[in-house]
Amino acid sequence: MKNKYLLNSHTYYILFIVCTLSIITLLLLPLSVFPSTSTIALFKHSDKVVHFIMFFGETWLLFRCIEFIKKYNFKKIGYIVFVSVFLFGFLTEILQKITYNTAKRTFSIWDLFFDTLACVVAIVLINILACKIKSRRFF
After folding, report:
1. Which end of the chain is more exposed for a tag (fewer CB within 10 A), N or C?
2. How many CB atoms lie within 10 A of CB 123?
């Protein structure tokens, strides 16, 4: 029988762990290790796009991991993923505030907003794709 998933469960778990560790690393590194934002920014506050992309991927991968682990219905997985990703985003912002003296990073409500927005958009997109394909297994 042909596997109906694009990737197997172990691959999703590994990708999720790598994504999570990458986000933590990027958000807690001192600002001095990054090039000046004036030289690479396409527009003001373009870092919010980076937050959106990182947390969109995190949401997508976490959804897939939970779907493999538990056979919850879509709505329950969506709630679990939303709360988990929101708390993860909040925790990263708190850690940035705590490490201000060494990393010069600060808590930003707008970063948290875009993290949460990415989570909501990812869950909605997953739902749309799942409905179009008429199956909860769409990878």
Report:
1. N
2. 21
pLDDT in tens, 54-103: 999 999 999 988 887 777 788 889 999 999 999 999 999 999 999 877 77
C-beta of residue 19 within 8 angstroms of C-beta of residue 57: yes
User: Pick from 49, 126, 40, 137: which is nearest to 82 by CA?
Assistant: 126
Secondary element (H or E) of residue 110: helix 109-133
Residues 82, 120: Cα–Cα separation, whole Å: 7
| Domain, as residue range, for 127 | 9-133
CA quadruple 43, 48, 50, 52: dihedral sign: negative
Q: Are 55 and 119 in contact (CB under 8 A)?
A: yes
26 found inside a domain: yes
Residue 100 lies in a domain: yes
- Is residue 75 situated within a structural domain? yes
Give the pLDDT confidence of 19-51 residue by residue, as tens digits.
999 999 998 888 777 676 555 556 667 788 989
Query: In 3D, which of 64, 66, 60 has the Cα closest to residue 80?
Result: 66
Q: Which amino acid is at 45?
A: H
